[in-house]
Amino acid sequence: MLDWLTVVFLFYSFVALYFMFMYLLIYIPNRQKFFSYPKPDREYGLSIVVPCYNEEKNIGNTIKALLEVNYKNLKRIIIVDDCSTDNSYAIIKKYASKYFKIMAVQTPKNTGNAAGAKNYGSKFVNTELIGFTDADSYPLKNSVMRMVGFFNKENVAAVTSMILVKRRKQLIENLQAIEYKIISFTRKLLSFVGAVYVTPGPLAIYRKKAYDSVGGFDAKNLTEDIEITWHLVSKGYDVKMSVPARVYTVAPRKVKDWFKQRIRWNLGGVQSMNKYKKSLLSRNMLGSFILPFFIFSWFIGIFGLMVLFYRVIRLFIVRYLSTLYSVQAETAILRLSEINLTPNILLFFGLTLVIFSFTFTMLALRHSKEEIIKDGVLNIFIYMFFYLLSYPLILIISLYKFSRGKSSW
Predict the structure, then answer these.
(1) What 3-state class would DSSP assign to 334?
(2) Strands 204-207 and 156-165, how do they pair?
């Protein structure tokens, strides 16, 4: 009879293989369309809003990148300073005085989050489309042109892009570069089945009518880009992703900053799940796929980490007591007969999962259209076997903070 840990391991193996095959079944029939994007059937008017708070080191380069965007119907670039305490607003006004397309505005008082600055900037937009870019992100010049065509379909409310890491000097930055590519790859796969769950801040474009219909961003949510996506999907709108539309963003270069960012991301995710929990199992895509996908993956991650800790601690205690007993009894610590080299089903499934995970990772990196050599074999190994283990731990900490009512930037 199988012990409970073996049953758990086999269940995890089944779930992992299920998701692998699910992604594979989505990828195979759509692989030829992975990099495609529709051409716009008309010239959509577009304004881009950039929230800014204490970004004097980055905001100038972000403005330059936006000025180089080759979409000719980009009417306005609205830079919203959220009452910065550094020289950000002075830099913004300098560009506004030089370029007619740049509009410099400042919030009446600090809103304390990106959503507040975004919503304030949206008041100055009267174009059909409204885009958002973070103050430390740099869209490529052809990015917008590769996104607006998706709005040919009236039901499309938002389009997101592929996010890549700009600066890669530290190990933590290189690991995030790998992570971002894999996230973009899976997000595109989910786009084929209408299940995009976030339109990240570095570059996203919304239909202004749809944006207004949900009241813009939720300023109380720490991940306003997740919340607005779920809100739009709950209203029956569709959200798309354009892989050829690329934007480079600055990732945290210190582990402390990375940790704080991930806690915020997870807290925002928990907030969104709590807000839309009544939609669970409803007939729209949010209730029938996105919410169950989030809940199930988070549960599996947390429970799996607990089982792993249990196995490691149990193994350590058993080995320690066995060694202690053997020393006191003056017997052999390890006998040759105790070494079992016979293959078993657990080893088979474990190796299968590693092979599938590695194949999926390399496939995702190849589809980023950046040279895999830049990521490095060692970095890929660290990402797969160490970096990913931090996910459940950060989620547990985030859930604890949420339970204590801590939900601030």
Answers:
(1) coil
(2) antiparallel
